[in-house]
């Protein structure tokens, strides 16, 4: 797969990524390499990665507990202390080997340690390959509120090794696939059409579709790195999806949802809002709802659940002047940003989802 050129970095695929690492990780440029992993990537991905890594620079491993609930400032404090105790300095580099939690928190750590050191993202989940590792967003959650604390700063590089996907369970693959579906819905009707028949896709198809998804996100981010315009289109499904994800994360009576599982629901809900506002035809909405519902299990919401999810919208990081901002579909493959919706319409969207 061809290397993708972003604003200030490159996205390398498979063996080209390891070639790049061997060229830049040299003692004259870096004093120490820190590899940030969680317990899952430590077991399933780190041995392969280390076998492919060729460098004379000293390596230290920092391992975290897995899970979104650990993407917080308390974990950052632990990592900052570890970096200090292990002799990290301004010429150190952090390699973030893991899923979206690792690339999000690892980038944030690198941006803030010693006022900023280099970092490279090596995503190991489908979600982090097509979304979290691309575009320079780094940060942590504030309690159960998603991505409230962070900074936009691009990595030195992103290295995507699709063989890591062989270590993933099905629910993690589906979680990442939700972001690929979103890319088609907001940007490219033809790409969406390729994704619709997911059961017929083989490994070669998936590699090609991952590359195309990264290209789509990179095109959008390259036009608007600070999210003042077109980059807001990437928030389709995320305004309500993040609220749902946060609610299920904090509610001990609910089973936590993976990011993509929550975003899948969010896309159906926000697709309905798009239809009700006259931006999406009923035929397009039914197509969206059918495709997504065929991939993801339904989640039950009662009236209390819906009210609590709506209440969480006030904390959405995309809000401006106290107004909740939606990115809505303006037909499949097109988007309209800075849209509003009444609570009544949001509640109606939930009722339609339940049906």
From TrEMBL:
Residues 62-174 form the 3-dehydroquinate synthase N-terminal domain. Pfam families: DHQ_synthase (PF01761), DHQS_C (PF24621). It is an enzyme of class 4 (lyase). SUPFAM superfamilies: Dehydroquinate synthase-like. It comes from the Bacteria. The keyword Signal does not apply. Keywords: Cobalt, Lyase, Metal-binding, NAD, Nucleotide-binding, Zinc. Its cofactor is Co(2+); NAD(+). One of its GO terms (molecular function) is 3-dehydroquinate synthase activity. Gene3D superfamilies: 3.40.50.1970, Dehydroquinate synthase-like - alpha domain. Residues 176-319 form the 3-dehydroquinate synthase C-terminal domain. Its EC number is 4.2.3.4. Catalyzes the conversion of 3-deoxy-D-arabino-heptulosonate 7-phosphate (DAHP) to dehydroquinate (DHQ). This is 3-dehydroquinate synthase. It comes from Flavobacterium sediminilitoris. The gene is aroB.
């Amino acid at each position: 797969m061809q290397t993708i050129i972003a604003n200030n970095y490159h996205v390398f695929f498979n063996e080209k990524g390891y070639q790049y690492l061997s060229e830049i990780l040299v003692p004259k440029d870096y004093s120490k390499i820190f590899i940030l992993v969680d317990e899952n990537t430590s077991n399933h991905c780190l041995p392969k990665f280390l076998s492919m890594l060729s460098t004379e620079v000293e390596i230290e491993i920092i391992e975290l507990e897995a899970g979104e609930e650990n993407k917080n400032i308390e974990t950052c404090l632990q990592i900052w202390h570890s970096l200090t105790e292990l002799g990290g300095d301004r010429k150190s580099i952090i390699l973030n080997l893991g899923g979206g939690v690792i690339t999000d928190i690892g980038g944030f750590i690198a941006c803030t340690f010693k006022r900023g050191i280099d970092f490279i993202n090596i995503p190991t989940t489908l979600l982090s390959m097509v979304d979290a590792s691309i575009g320079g967003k780094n940060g942590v959650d504030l309690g159960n509120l998603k991505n409230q604390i962070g900074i936009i700063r691009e990595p030195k590089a992103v290295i995507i090794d699709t063989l890591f996907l062989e270590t993933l369970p099905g629910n993690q693959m589906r979680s990442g696939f939700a972001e690929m579906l979103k890319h088609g819905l907001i940007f490219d009707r033809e790409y969406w059409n390729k994704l619709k028949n997911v059961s017929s896709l083989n490994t070669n198809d998936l590699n090609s579709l991952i590359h195309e998804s990264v290209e789509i996100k990179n095109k959008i981010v390259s036009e608007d790195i600070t999210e003042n315009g077109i980059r807001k289109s990437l928030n389709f499904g995320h305004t309500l999806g993040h609220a749902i994800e946060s609610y299920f994360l904090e509610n001990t009576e609910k089973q936590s949802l993976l990011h993509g599982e929550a975003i899948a629901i969010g896309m159906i809900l926000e697709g309905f809002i798009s239809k009700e506002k006259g931006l999406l035809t009923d035929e397009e909405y039914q197509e969206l709802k059918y495709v997504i519902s065929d991939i993801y299990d339904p989640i039950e919401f009662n009236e209390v659940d819906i009210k609590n999810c709506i209440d969480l919208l006030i904390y959405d990081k995309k809000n401006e002047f106290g107004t909740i901002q939606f990115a809505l579909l303006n037909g499949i493959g097109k988007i309209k940003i800075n849209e509003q919706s009444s609570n009544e319409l949001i509640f109606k969207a939930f009722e339609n989802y339940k049906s």
